[in-house]
Structure formats: C-alpha cells, structure tokens
Amino acid sequence: MDGITVTVLDDEAVLRERVEANDLDAGIVLPAGFDDAVRSGAAHPQVLDRR
Predict the structure, then answer these.
(1) Which ranges of the chain does DSSP label H, i.e. alpha helix?
(2) Is 51 within a domain?
(3) pTM value > 0.85
(4) Is residue 8 helix, strand or coil?
(5) C-alpha span between 20 and 22 (Å, rounded)
C-alpha cells in the first residue's frame, strides 16, 4: 500500500517506546488469538476513521 509501511514487533513495550519517540506514527496491538477469533466470528474488529 502506498504511503504505509508495516513494521511487526514482538514486544508491546517496544512498540509504545517507538511511538512515543516518534520513530513510528502509530501502533496496533493485536492480542494472541485475535486472528482466529475474527475468523470464527467470536471477535469483531473495530475500524476507527479520523478525518
């Protein structure tokens, strides 16, 4: 996707540090099992759009 770079980190604390240090513009934390929960219908992702 043009203009978006995805960086995968294994540590939430490191993500928070990098966002606070302005090394990253934003961060998303997905809990363990989230993918399976969405696929099974047990969880519903929320889409937030700030315009």
Answers:
(1) 12-20, 34-40
(2) no
(3) no
(4) coil
(5) 5
Distance from C-alpha of 15 to C-alpha of 7, rounded to nearest angstrom: 10
Per the structure, the count of domains in the chain is: 1
45 close to 37: Cβ distance less than 8 angstroms: no
Place of tokens 């997905």: 30
**d(C-alpha 22, C-alpha 42), whole Å:** 34
For residue 15, how many other CB atoms are within 10 A of its CB? 19
* Position 1 pLDDT exceeds 80: no
Q: By residue range, what is the domain housing residue 18?
A: 1-45
Summarize pLDDT for 16-44 with one digit per residue, the tens.
999 999 999 988 888 889 899 989 999 87
